[in-house]
Amino acid sequence: MNTTFRMALLGTLLSLYSASAAELIMAKDGSGVYGYKDTPVLPWCGFHVHDPDRPAPRRVAVAPLAAPVPAPADAIVLFDGKNLDRWQKSDWKLEDGCVVAVSGSFATRDAFTNYQLHLEWMPPKEPAKEWYNRGNNGVLLMGVYEIQIFDSYTEKLYPDGQAAAIYGQTPPLVNVCRPPGEWQAFDIVFSVPKFEADKLVEPARVTMWHNGVLVHLNEPIHGETGHRIQPAYNKKVSQGPLVLSGHNCPVKFRNIWLRPL
After folding, report:
1. Are 23 and 38 in contact (CB under 8 A)?
2. I need a surface site. Which of 10, 41, 149, 180 has the fewest CB within 10 A?
3. Are 60 and 178 contacting, i.e. CB atoms less than 8 angstroms apart?
4. Residue 55 DSSP class
5. What are residue 46's phi and psi, to 5 degrees?
6. Whole-number Å distance between alpha carbons of 14 and 194
7. What is the pLDDT along the chain (261 residues), one digit of tens a residue?
8. How far apart are CA 2 and CA 4, in angstroms?
9. For the domain with range 57-260, which CATH number is right: 3.20.20.150, 2.60.40.1930, 1.10.1040.50, 2.60.120.560?
10. Whole-model pTM?
């Protein structure tokens, strides 16, 4: 698809979407990135939530994932392609050794605190018609803090909503998305927030690799994540399930394991 046609198509989609929702704005630099300017300003960086003018992470090419990464001996294997015994019931599907997203949440039966997490995911090769659902999914740490899954190889979504972003807060350091239809890998080291009574004394933090490349280093999470919201620590929790978030886009997952720390 050439650039002129793509921009015209995106303009049409934006017009249709903005008729029934908040207005989407194109980045001032002509890059084709789109987002919002009517959202709260994030105090630690000065950009709006989902700001199209926030600097987009540069692209870094990576080789295809050769094979699933084996779980270490001390890991809890959450999904090995055989069954969904460690997960709560949902409408997600088990197909050909993968779990395929449908709608709603896909949550572990167990709750966890600090951990190292590995999972592999694949956005559909054929993109959804809707711009906002192209490979759209998420990894919700403790069911609260979302690391975004998205087809950021082809789609120029606002930087704090692209793949590997702490959703609505912090973009990844670089964009290392592989093309849709190829396997991607997330490796996440997560530490829970600490509270004294109702007072936050230490935020949650994440160090993360996407496809083997560092994209977050001891990055603070500023509160619950969400669409078009100012993050805050309203939920005073320090343990919770691992949750994958479906949006009726058939993202596939395999080889999910976790090491409690």
Report:
1. yes
2. 41
3. no
4. P
5. 85, 5
6. 41
7. 444 434 444 444 444 444 335 889 999 999 999 999 999 999 999 999 999 999 999 999 999 998 999 999 999 999 999 999 999 999 999 999 999 999 999 999 999 999 999 999 999 998 667 767 789 999 999 999 999 999 999 999 999 999 999 999 999 999 999 999 999 999 999 999 999 998 999 999 999 999 999 999 999 999 999 999 999 999 999 999 999 999 889 999 999 999 999
8. 6
9. 2.60.120.560
10. 0.91
CB 183 within 8 A of CB 120: yes
Q: Which amino acid is at 135?
A: G
Rg (CA), the chain: 18
Helix (H) or strand (E) holding 5: helix 3-18
Rounded-to-integer distance, Cα 210 and Cα 143, Å: 20
Please give the structure tokens belonging to residue 261: 């720390």
How many CB atoms sit inside 10 A of residue 251's CB? 26
Quote the distance between the C-alpha of residue 250 and its chain's center: 15
